[in-house]
UniProtKB/TrEMBL annotation:
This is DUF8159 domain-containing protein. It holds the Pfam family DUF8159. It comes from Halorientalis regularis. Residues 4-115 form the DUF8159 domain. InterPro entries: DUF8159.
Amino acid sequence: MSTFQTAVNESLAVTEAELESLVVADDAMSLGYRVPSTDDRDAITEQVAAVAAAFLLVVRDGAGRPELTVHIYEGDALVPTASYCIDADWARACILGDSEHSEYLQRVLDSLVSREQLAAGKVSFVEA
């Protein structure tokens, strides 16, 4: 898992995000990172793309879990401001050429939800 952690650290460092936590269980992974603000949609998209690219590497190397749940923490917040998930099947399809990288990234971006949506029970994720 060090490959994934290294890739995520390097990718997020470029986007001004900071790794908060990485938990790996038998059937899932959970990642948390902290950002100064979630108001800049371009920055959030860049961070999501960085994590998605790192997850592609870990899935390609055979070390990925079926799902990666990601939580974004804004500033000093104790609860996630937003969350998203990445399914390993999406990554495999991209790796095998069954889908374009842009399609893979769009699926990941489509899973991005705010804390309000999570609290309202509109979305749920598997926790590692």
